[in-house]
Design brief:
Blueprint (H helix, E strand, L loop, with lengths): L11 H32 E4 L2 E4 L2 H7 L2 H34 E2 L3 H13 L2 H12 L14 H24 L5 H8 L4 H29 L2 H7 L7 H10 L4 H33 L9 E2 L5 H29 L10 H4 L14 H30 L6 H13 L2 H4 L2 H11 L16 H24 L2 H9 L4 H30 L4 H4 L7 H10 L3 H29 L8
Parallel strand pairs: 3-4
Antiparallel strand pairs: 1-2
Helix pairs in contact: 1-11, 1-14, 1-17, 2-11, 3-6, 3-8, 3-12, 4-6, 4-23, 5-6, 5-9, 5-12, 5-23, 6-8, 7-8, 8-11, 10-11, 10-17, 12-23, 14-15, 14-18, 14-20, 18-20, 19-20, 20-23, 22-23
Keywords: Cell inner membrane, Cell membrane, Membrane, Transmembrane, Transmembrane helix, Transport
Protein name: Iron ABC transporter permease
Membrane topology: Multi-pass membrane protein
């Protein structure tokens, strides 16, 4: 029997207002305001001390063939990368989430590593792979459309595996078993029963992958060069090299249109996926893997091949190239050089000092992201009866997804414009050292929300109602019901936030001072300086950063174990 609903305790509404208001204030000050300021500055001219609206920049930028070439390249690279990631990721989702075998948690962590790797590291790894003398140098796809797409698939493979696998693991097997008992072959049962059930998860993963492919700043900047740029790299070029804020503002709006469309599609498909979860069993339906079973062996062989060629080979190639000295021999010279500032003093700090800066910054950024993202997940997980409140909750969810799609370059440059005296305070955040972790937290918050939210939504609301009926205050309900059930997913969210903050490059490239540079910024500076010594140091530093992020995600995945958790 359903327990009677109790009237909210005094102060409950105030608590929920604060839980929603504090994240909104954070988003408004550190995301909406900087982005809006940059766009406004691009469309207003200074006419004798007064600012006048001038929209001629739209016609000027949109009439340039280069603009539409960049837009076309962005959409083409994102579309092809999305299709390949989905096709290659489905076998991996089956093997890693539908089958049980020793070392499954380790394998899941390995597959997740590419997603949390800094985009600069991914670009460096594939640049070493495709360069003359590299493992696949004979393909001739260095600085090409194909090279960029392969790197994008590497980066987003885990998104498909985790998103689709998370639903597949909980999918009730009885429908497929019934089809098999009626004479359907394994392929026909998969095509007519399982695949339609996975449709919402596949479509949701595709929308998210498209979004990430369209905004992979570091990968395209390192691999594509000037010829295969995207909207985001074009914003960076117009802002940093030409100081053309008007063109950058127009491009930012074009990017917002693309991102908003992808987010709307993703949100609608994610809602269908979450409704589908109500039809699944509470326990994992995974079975013991067997090489003798063709339905297991074929996707397993495909997964081994894809992970080997797409994940292991690029990372192994990066490690191997980092061990080649400038004179062509093998050794640790590049790693020894990490204690210096590079050839011709290319850096202001050593790589080890930059590593320490990255770790300190990532700790603070992860703390901010988990607190803000946890509050958002808690508020958005509620299903109020009022239609107006439901729309407000949906709007809040969508608002905190926007940082995934807006150029980090736009956010970083907007910080420099707006945060000299935020809210009238007598403090210049641009020189305080807080700007970098705040910017990194803005990027990490959507991932925290997406990781924690499905778990909080899956909690049976009757558990909270029973606790409240027995006299538990809202804080105690949160502590005794929601807390234990979301603990592991929150640990995974901490891992994601920390790893993403370690590798954030777009906004950090604007905000990090030379004497407090982070590891991704140092790697990019080394790549841009001439000399074999600097390039070797960049390779070695990329390995260090990859090991750090991989270790964080392995630990987070290990702590999560087989517990339910949100996916992307």
């Amino acid at each position: 029997m359903r327990p009677p609903r109790r009237r909210p305790a005094p102060g409950t509404w105030l608590w929920w207002v604060l839980a929603a208001g504090l994240p909104l204030l954070f988003l408004g000050v550190f995301f909406a305001w900087p982005v809006a300021a940059l766009v406004v500055q691009g469309f207003f001219t200074d006419d004798g001390g007064t600012r006048a609206l001038d929209l001629s920049g739209f016609a000027e930028v949109l009439s340039q063939p280069r603009t539409w070439r960049v837009v076309g390249q962005t959409l083409a690279q994102a579309s092809v990368g999305t299709v390949l990631a989905v096709l290659l990721g489905l076998p991996g989702a089956y093997v890693l989430y539908r089958c049980r075998f020793p070392g499954r948690a380790l394998a899941r962590g390995l597959v997740t590593v590419p997603f949390v790797l800094p985009t600069v590291v991914v670009g460096v790894a594939f640049r070493a792979l495709f360069a003359p003398g590299g493992t696949f140098g004979w393909l001739g796809i260095e600085e090409s459309f194909a090279g960029v797409v392969v790197a994008l698939v590497f980066f987003n493979y885990a998104v498909v595996v985790r998103t689709v696998g998370g639903l597949w693991e909980r999918l009730d097997p009885r429908a497929e078993q019934a089809a098999r008992s009626l004479g359907a072959s394994p392929w026909r049962a998969f095509r007519t029963v399982t695949l339609p059930a996975l449709g919402p998860a596949i479509a949701s993963a595709a929308a998210v992958v498209f979004l990430f492919c369209a905004t992979a700043f570091g990968v395209v900047l390192v691999l594509g060069g000037m010829r295969y740029g995207t909207i985001e790299t074009e914003i960076w070029i117009r802002t940093t090299q030409f100081l053309d804020l008007r063109a950058a503002a127009v491009l930012s709006i074009l990017q917002l249109v693309v991102v908003t469309g992808a987010l709307l599609v993703s949100a609608r498909l994610r809602a269908r996926r979450e409704r589908a979860l109500h039809l699944t069993s509470d326990r994992s339906a995974a079975h013991r893997f067997s090489w003798r079973r063709a339905a297991d062996a074929v996707p397993a062989a495909a997964t081994v091949a894809v992970v080997g060629l797409l994940v292991v080979v690029p990372l192994a190639g990066l490690v191997a190239r980092s061990l080649r000295t400038p004179d062509g021999t093998w050794g640790f010279d590049n790693y020894v050089a990490l204690g210096t500032t590079g050839g011709r003093n290319a850096l202001s700090v050593t790589v080890w000092e930059a590593t320490a800066n990255s770790l300190r910054t990532a700790v603070l950024a992860a703390l901010i992201a988990v607190v803000v993202g946890g509050l958002v997940a808690l508020v958005v997980s509620r299903r109020p009866r009022s239609a107006g409140l439901r729309r407000a909750v949906g709007a809040l969810d969508a608002a905190f997804m926007l940082p995934l799609g807006v150029s980090a370059v736009t956010v970083g440059f907007g910080f420099l414009i707006t945060l000299d005296r935020p809210l009238g305070l007598d403090v210049d955040l641009r020189t305080s050292g807080l700007l970098v972790p705040i910017a990194q937290a803005v990027v990490a918050i959507p991932l925290v929300v997406r990781t924690v939210l499905p778990v909080v939504r899956a909690i049976d609301p009757r558990l909270r109602e029973v606790a409240a009926t027995l006299g538990a205050a809202p804080g105690r309900v949160l502590r005794t019901v929601d807390g234990p059930l979301t603990a592991r997913s929150l640990g995974l969210a901490v891992g994601f936030a920390f790893a993403v903050s370690l590798g954030e490059f777009g906004a950090t490239s604007f905000l990090a001072r030379p004497d407090a540079a982070t590891l991704p910024v140092v790697i990019f500076r080394l790549i841009g300086r001439p000399g074999a010594e600097n390039y070797g140091m960049a390779l070695a530093a990329s390995v260090v950063l990859a090991v750090l992020t991989a270790t964080v995600m392995m630990v987070a995945e290990r702590l999560r174990g087989d517990a339910g958790g949100g996916e992307f």
